[in-house]
Amino acid sequence: MESDAVQLPVSHKAWAWFEANRKQTVWGAGVVVLVGLIVAFFLYRHNEAEIAASEALSSVSVPQLTGASARADVAEAYLKVAATYPDSSAGPRALLLAAGSLFVEGKYPQAKAEFERFTREHRATPYLGEALLGIAACLDAQGNSREAIAAYKDLIDHHPSDNVLPQARFALARLYEAQNEPELARNLFEEVARTNPYGSLGSEAGMRLEELKMKYPTLGAPKTPMPTNAAPVQTEKR
Q: What's the number of domains the chain is made of?
């Protein structure tokens, strides 16, 4: 009874407050409901767009398996997906695949342009390293060795934890080997073989390393100290 006597005035006060502020309360509740509906609508639309983008991306991937003749319009199809769904998770992947398809077709300037576009528009994605590797590979494929070396080194130096580093190191080692820089090539091949011992790239790096050592027998050998003709200093005996 005592509890009821304490609670009764409180409930009366609450009801009185509600009556006095009925209009504001109703409006506030209406705003909350409206905001909830808007958020739910956009989440629904976002999920629908993600599903549509993923389906569009998957529909482009299938023709690649049917032969080289079916690859003619693959890059354009990927670019269309990227343009149609730029804010979806499939959009960046589609752009990267378009650039890769252009590279495979030997259209290196166009591929480089799309890789560069990716780095401008999608720097926060986990695929940035792949796009940077693609730019370097395009330069490499066009015979721009100096620019390719700079691009590979920039990727290695500024993205040390990226998963494309073994490919970048291997490609850079190959360029150094071609430019008669065996010491630099050896260091990179050793790094690839060490960090990827069970992968195909690590095995390839190991074989290239052995070939490099056969071509340069003194590679990595300790340097013989230069002889000195200076006479030993004799201390005066007393």
A: 1
pLDDT, position 212: 92
CA angle 212, 213, 214 (to 5 degrees): 90
Residue 87's φ and ψ, nearest 5 degrees, are -95, 5
- Is 72 domain-assigned? yes
pLDDT of residue 213 exceeding 80 = yes
d(CA 209, CA 233): 46
What does the alpha-carbon distance between residue 96 and residue 98 come to, in Å, rounded to a whole number? Answer: 5
Rounded to 10 degrees, what is the CA torsion of 124, 130, 131, 132? 100
Residue pair 155/136 in contact (Cβ under 8 Å)? The answer is: yes
Question: Does a structural domain hold residue 169?
Answer: no
Average pLDDT over residues 130-155: 96
- Domain of residue 79, residue span: 37-125
116 assigned to some structural domain:
yes
Q: Is residue 121 part of a domain?
A: yes
Radius of gyration, alpha carbons of the chain? 33
Which token pair is 10? Answer: 């409180």
pTM for this model (two decimals):
0.68
